[in-house]
Amino acid sequence: MLEKRLLACFAHPDDEAFPIGGSLAAHSSKGVNIRLITATSGEEGEIRSPGLTMPNGLGSLRRDELSCSVRTLGLQSHSVLGYRDSGMAGTSANERPEAFVNIPQQEIVGILVREIRTFKPQVVLTFEPGGLYGHPDHIAICHHTTKAFHAANDSSAYPEQILEGLEPFQPERLYYSARPQGFRTSMALKLQAAGIDFPLPTIERANDGIDPSEIHVEVDVSAQLEEKMGSILCHKSQVAPNWPYNQVPRSVAADILGREHYIRAWPQFTNEETLTGDFFEGLKS
């Protein structure tokens, strides 16, 4: 029986924690070999925890936080590509030539094709095309990963890799991480109902997410709540001191953090199917 392998391609440190940490921990606990690719070091992230010591800058700190998260989730390997965080849409960071969104697609896709041909994952996981909430880097990594997923088995794509001895390889499934529209409002209301003084999202953020009808499966990862919360807390720079999930009953935390949502982008989903949280279910190789 061949080893199960999952390649997760995301944009920033903490992308592996907040939206998909439960699923990664669940698959790792079942013996799946998981490799994480993180495109940037997250230099534009908002510093939510005051008083942090950052002698080498925020990017270096966030790479250390990522390493902590990877260990907590039980992932086998990870790599940071080293491009610069592009920041939110419309910010000056978008204009930096080294920002991830300004790197030629051919370059990034080539890197990801090499990863696929080397690691040979049956399943590839990334963001949905809207990037959960429109973050330019999230959108970019989705587009690049999707293109690499379909190009990796084409011997005419990046032929220099073939000459090096890498063989074409086609993963069997491509999954997108998604969140249902209004997830920020739903989260805030549940925390408020639990007695937490948590603000509702701004009008601009209230409808973040996608139409729930486009989501193929909601996964219950409450059994992995401790690992997921632990991985999130590794990202100290991104977690405020009054982080609400340590202040509410575990049942409330599980109701919010213990649900993850996915789209199966390939092969095309049919309404006759019922998907589970096992990305490998039914695969024979």
Structure write-up:
The chain has helices at 21-29, 58-73, 105-119, 131-134, 136-151, 159-163, 183-193, 225-234, 250-257, and strands at 5-10, 33-40, 77-83, 123-127, 173-178, 217-220, 259-266. It starts with a strand and ends in a 19-residue tail after the last strand. A 7-stranded mixed β-sheet has the order 3-2-1-4-5-7-6, sandwiched between helices. It has 285 residues and is an alpha/beta fold. It is globular and about 60 Å long.
| Helix and strand sequence | EHEHEHEHHHEHEHHE
**Rg calculated over all Cα atoms:** 19 Å
Largest sheet, in brief, is: 7 strands, mixed
Overall body shape: globular
Name of the CATH first level: Alpha Beta
Instruction: Name the CATH superfamily classification.
Output: LmbE-like
**Lateral arrangement of strands in the main beta sheet:** 3-2-1-4-5-7-6
Q: What is the CATH T-level topology?
A: Rossmann fold
